[in-house]
């Protein structure tokens, strides 16, 4: 019998689960599973040091540009977001703003996180802001809320952070030598080596040169340095690469031309768009082949238009809430890139993410072009990303993948977050998946075979990722 939700707290046992079939799928099959979070931006230093935060503002609001954007929309002064207000003042302002975030995913996430980490079932508002600030902060200062304890509390079995090729991975080395039960790995993120059109490119190349201990005078030296760092990351447990691009460029050219383009940039000259795309194409192909040789998995996050507000970017820097969905053509370049590697039998496992929902069907069908039977779900359409990791976005991704691919092969959810309190997003995703399948069972669209459907739910939520990443 379905519970009477009017007598329950907002985040109750059957939250988002509309039918008894959905409830059975979630509670019996999905809920008990541990978490594999294969893409996030958590600071490994904080994990290695087992950091204990000072208060809920530092732990929960700091660095969360989802919350920052909402507060700015409500007319909140920057002082209370990233500015000079005290942590307590910032929390009070956030709390009084939460009721006005109704129907934004932040409203669900906020109350889900308060419930799962702190056992707080009240709806956050100005009325209870000080009480919740003091109660949660007292809890946070205990060892049960250290970074490692928070990950264990959510049953995080594996998580993968994201590092630049110049990173020395000292924190990952510390963690790998510790007795911490959660496996913490890294993903190689070479974006800065690809963005040759940026003003600070040459200074980055000098930094890369020092990290690789290779003097980078020409394009061949650059490739040698990148190979050096790939091998260093590999020795330290990395098996995953990630790239954040507006779109996939594809402009092949000659070795002589690529060398000329790189040397031109190193001399401080401006490059044309086609020169930039030629360079990026060749370096991406080089990287793709290097990943294949070592058996890595490559990821591509496509479609973000970043740092739109120049004034605020200059004031606060990147990742502070000034990005949006871009409108770029991605089909041709992506097809040619994957096909070029596949033709040479050097296409490794690949995960594709889109930020523009207009590209959903493109990626859902693109992955089928290169799933060659060599391994289950070799090319993946990744879960709803960033502006799309909410109920409608995830539902659309799941339904389209079900229709144009095989949802049974899907590797599931990730947090893509900088917050140690973001892991209930896996629960949010699992409840949604179970609700979709449960509704289909009730409608007669799927069979009343809970063992079959429950097994597929477990594959989507955990087993497929465990197998795909070979954890």
Indicate the CATH class of the largest domain. Answer: Alpha Beta
Largest sheet: 7 strands, parallel
CATH fold descriptor of the largest domain:
TIM Barrel
- Enumerate the spans where pLDDT stays under 50 for 5 or more consecutive residues: none
Shape: globular
- Number-wise, the strands total 9
Major sheet strand order: 1-2-3-4-5-8-9
CATH architecture annotation of the largest domain: Alpha-Beta Barrel
Instruction: Give the number of helices.
Output: 20
Number of domains: 2
Q: Could you give the order of the helices and strands?
A: HEHHHHHHHEHEHHHEHHEEHEHEHEHHH
Structural class: alpha/beta
Strand content: 5-15%
- Integer-rounded radius of gyration: 23 Å
Question: Helix proportion of residues, in percent?
Answer: 40-55%
Q: Give average pLDDT, whole number.
A: 96
CATH superfamily of the largest domain: Metal-dependent hydrolases
Spatial gap, N to C terminus: 39 Å
Task: Summarize the structure in words.
By secondary structure, the chain is of the alpha/beta class. The protein has helices spanning about 20-30, 45-50, 55-60, 65-75, 85-95, 105-120, 130-140, 145-155, 170-175, 190-195, 200-210, 220-235, 255-265, 275-295, 310-315, 330-345, 360-370, 390-405, 425-445, 450-470; strands spanning about 35, 155-165, 185-190, 240-245, 295-300, 305, 325, 350-355, 380. It has two domains: about 35-50 and about 155-420, TIM Barrel (Alpha-Beta Barrel), CATH 3.20.20.140; about 50-145, uronate isomerase, domain 2, chain A. The protein contains 20 helices and nine strands. Helix 11 packs across helix 12 (about 220-235). The two termini are about 40 Å apart. The mean pLDDT is about 95.
């Amino acid at each position: 019998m379905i519970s009477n939700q009017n007598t329950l707290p907002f985040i109750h046992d059957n939250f988002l689960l509309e039918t008894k079939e959905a409830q059975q799928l979630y509670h019996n099959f999905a809920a008990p599973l541990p978490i594999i979070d294969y893409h996030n931006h958590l600071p490994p230093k904080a994990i290695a040091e087992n950091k204990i935060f000072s208060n809920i503002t530092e732990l929960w609001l700091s660095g969360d540009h989802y919350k920052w954007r909402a507060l700015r929309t409500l007319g909140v002064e920057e002082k209370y977001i990233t500015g000079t207000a005290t942590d307590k003042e910032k929390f009070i302002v956030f709390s009084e703003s939460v009721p006005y975030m109704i129907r934004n995913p932040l409203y669900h996430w906020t109350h889900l996180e308060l419930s799962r980490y702190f056992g707080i079932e009240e709806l956050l508002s100005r009325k209870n802001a000080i009480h919740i600030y003091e109660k949660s902060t007292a809890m946070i200062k205990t060892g049960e809320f250290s970074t490692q304890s928070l990950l264990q509390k959510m049953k995080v079995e594996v998580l993968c952070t994201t590092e630049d090729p110049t990173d020395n991975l000292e924190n990952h080395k510390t963690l790998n030598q510790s007795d911490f039960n959660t496996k913490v790995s890294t993903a190689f993120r070479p974006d800065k080596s690809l963005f040759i059109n940026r003003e600070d490119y040459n200074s980055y190349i000098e930094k890369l040169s020092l990290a690789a201990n290779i003097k980078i005078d020409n394009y061949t030296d650059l490739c040698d340095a990148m190979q050096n760092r790939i091998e260093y990351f590999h020795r330290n447990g990395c098996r995953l690469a990630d790239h954040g691009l507006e779109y996939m460029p594809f402009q092949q050219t000659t070795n002589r031309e690529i060398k000329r383009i790189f040397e031109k940039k190193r001399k401080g000259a401006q490059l044309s768009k086609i020169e930039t795309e030629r360079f990026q194409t060749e370096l991406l192909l080089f990287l793709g082949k290097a990943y294949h040789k070592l058996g890595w998995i490559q990821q591509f996050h496509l479609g973000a238009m970043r740092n739109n507000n120049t004034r605020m970017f200059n004031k606060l820097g990147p990742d502070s809430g000034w990005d949006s969905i871009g409108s770029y053509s991605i089909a041709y370049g992506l097809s040619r890139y994957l096909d070029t590697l596949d033709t040479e039998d050097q296409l490794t496992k690949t995960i594709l993410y889109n930020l523009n929902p207009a590209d959903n069907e493109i990626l859902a069908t693109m992955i089928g072009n290169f799933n060659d039977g060599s391994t289950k779900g070799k090319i993946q359409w990744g879960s709803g990303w960033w502006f799309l990791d909410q109920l409608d976005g995830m539902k659309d991704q799941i339904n389209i993948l079900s229709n144009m691919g095989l949802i049974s092969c899907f590797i599931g959810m990730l947090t893509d977050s900088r917050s140690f309190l973001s892991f209930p997003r896996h629960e949010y995703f699992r409840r949604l998946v179970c609700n979709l399948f449960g509704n289909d069972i009730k409608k007669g669209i799927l069979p009343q075979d809970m063992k079959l459907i429950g097994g597929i739910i477990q594959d989507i939520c955990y087993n497929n990722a465990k197998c795909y990443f070979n954890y």
